[in-house]
Structures
1.
Amino acid sequence: MMNYFAAKLTEILKHTLVIVSIFFIVRLLFAVCFVPFTTFEAYAKSLPFAAFNALRFDLQVAAYVAILPFLVVLVCLFVRNRSVAGRLSKFISTYYVVLEIALLILALVDIGFYSNFHSHINITFFDFFNENPLSLLQTIWEEYHVILYLSAVGLASFGIYILAQKIAKGMLNCENKQASLVVNRKTIALVVVFLIAEVVCLRGSVWRFPLQVEDSFVSSSKQINDLVPNAAYMLKKAMKEKKNAFAFRSIESLLSEYKFKSLQEAINVYTNSDTIRLQGDTLAALRTALFRTVPDTMTHKQPNVLIIYEESWSNYLMNLDTPRCDMLLGMRRHLKEDLLFRNFQSVGNGTIASIENIVSSVPFPRFFSSPYRFHCLPSSVALPFNESGYTTEFISGMDVAWENCAEALKHQQFTKVTGKFTLKEQHPEYEYNSIGVFDHHLFRSIQERLDQQTAKPQMMLCMTTTNHPPFEFPKDVQLKAVPDDYYNNVCFAEKNHEVLQKYITGFRYANKTLGDFLDKFKQSKAAENTIVIISGDHNVRSIIDYTQVNKRWERSVPLYIYLPPYLRKESHRSMTNRWGSHDDILATLAPFAFRNTKYMCLGNNLLKEGVTDSTYYSANVEQLLACPAYQAQAQRIVSARNLLRIVFFQQTFAKY
């Protein structure tokens, strides 16, 4: 007969099975309600992976629920008092009944939420508590079969109670024996094994990375992916997003921070005129100031547009290119042939910050994790391209569930969102690491798209991934070794040569794959009608010692521009010393691509003729760079822009 401790651990395991079964049954209900049978047929190869990851999510929830009962077992292990053990046993039984019923109700609420919003529980779930919940409850009562649903929940809850009673009764004999509280080596071993299993389930993984939201993506089908996570996990994710949600500020406090007397003064400074007047409709005036109208006067053929954000593509590391150490590799030729801006910075200092900035121009961090991601913003970069006749696609080797990218980008009206699983479905031979599909495969798929004959021009926004920790590179990548003494350069803050080697290899791999892609691209017909823009999403962050290196390089990334022959001008080459940042990319593209549309213009056209180079600036969230004589004026313009942009989005979000 089992002793008390073995019996209690067995009881926890049985309740774990109950919790997993609850999620399984609700998941079946979800499949019946929302997933057509044809989808299961089309994505049959993804179903085993979906089932495996679904089990990981369910076991993680069960492990969190098991923490308290396991602690109770540990208490009894030391106390070994039959009276205490009996009371704690009753507590465990009651505890599981309450939690299992709560998880069942939450799972069913999630299905109801999905039927209305086509999404699992997310941050908008909390709007229920903010927008007259009594009125919403009345609407639910009037429009849904509440009595039927409550009856079903009541029956299911009663079933859970009966099941818990049977589990508890099965363990009762062990608890009535004083000898059952004896601790021996077998008991200790059992507790240790259970503890290890508990930790693994809490982490959700035995691999490098713990279970995370990206693991809910197992295919290119939203319906299949939505089968994977459970309601408890999605509620936890929503609560985290709510906690990190940005807060709005009063106009008065913003005026004080940015040193303006009024919004009118800021508008005048930013637009360099006094023609836009605040006359009651603040939002309309801000839209006029921040947006630029493009008429339908284009005379040339619209080019395809490819924007590549290269992971950690550092500007400063280009300076370390020497005859002994080739840092540029395949990009050397293209950097000479085309336009290269070195006085350039990213706007944000992280991957998601840079993606959010070019996609939406929202000044608040973590926009993709906010409730506003479910609304198409007037500032979406996809809108002017769509209105100008383009198809718009975000394409990356990463799992696009990361940071809610797939969800947010679709609401920002991208025609397609392509990530790791779509690329793998299109090319099963593609290899990948823990971050995503290798970049050289990604560029192959981009070239395939550019080679297609399409009715509309294409706009693609690409994010690479391979040059990112943990720096897992293709097995067959061949790069000439860097001399050992190269790593002794005083510019490096990182002194561990093995760590440095990974960063340098990542940078060189990036240049090799970019160069290989551009070699093939320029030999293709697509080169006759495609603009290619490449920049780093942010600088490499941890290996450079900026006490030894000029601070201007700290946030610096290069900007490379390829223009098709019919759009080139000889004067463009003389403009590459201008200061700029990611905010200038859209303004530079607009004359080549847009027609009969409006777009949020937060930067300058880097290829505009008749403008003095010294009036350009580079605005990163941490530092502003410009010619010394123009620094103060540039700071004033950027302050005005940032103030107006914050007020614009606060008032825009207030309408949602």
2.
Amino acid sequence: MTQAQETTTTSAKPQTNTRTLVGRVVSDKRSKTITVLVERRVIHELYGKIVGRSRKYHAHDEKGEYKMGDLVEIAETRPISKTKSWVVTKLLEKARLA
């Protein structure tokens, strides 16, 4: 294989190192955008206690099919807007009705 052929075959592979996170939808008020709360547990550096940390991510929802309370998986992608660089990949669990 020549150098030119090697570069075309390697760039054609799908990206496998995409970051994915699982979180709960906390807002679906904007069109094509949802807010996902991702919670994680970490060990406190000094005291060794397990503490909860959370962060909100804005994710792209093209069809507007995800509602508040749904458990979704989001994946990192190119910047879509100023605050939105994540896209919803799949629905893991529908929201429970009260």
3.
Amino acid sequence: MKIVILGAGGRLGAALMREYRDQFDVTGFNHAQLDLSDHEQLRETLGALDVDLVINAAAFTNVDLCETQREEAFRINADAPRVLAEICRDKNARLIHFSTDYVFDGEKREPYGESDEARPISVYGESKREGEKFVLQTQDRHLIVRVSWVFGPDRPSFIAVSYTHL
């Protein structure tokens, strides 16, 4: 299986690269190598590759900055997943797109499920929800994974920093 991982320089993408590189033919791109805001570059680069699965672990994740850079947030978090889904559809490849719990408003007292209505209250959440919609509208073979918190050994996380201050 030939896999492309976008966001390979981030915590999640790096972990996926480590996990899959010995089992599959994996190509990873970090932000400097493939900018999600450059949709033409996405089409050219991924269009030239023979791929079975694209894993999108990249996003504009700075929640506060998304509020002041709305257009960029939507270009990366909504429009880029649409482009990726279209590329995968045209190549008969699958897409795994990582999203976020920020698509919910946080008012529910129990855990959210996949059938709960998304009600984002931030630009980040809105942009990620639009990306989900685009992916789902493009092809039913694609998968969306909503994660709440990603942490690991690659760099200090909120959990690790908090622990050192106890």
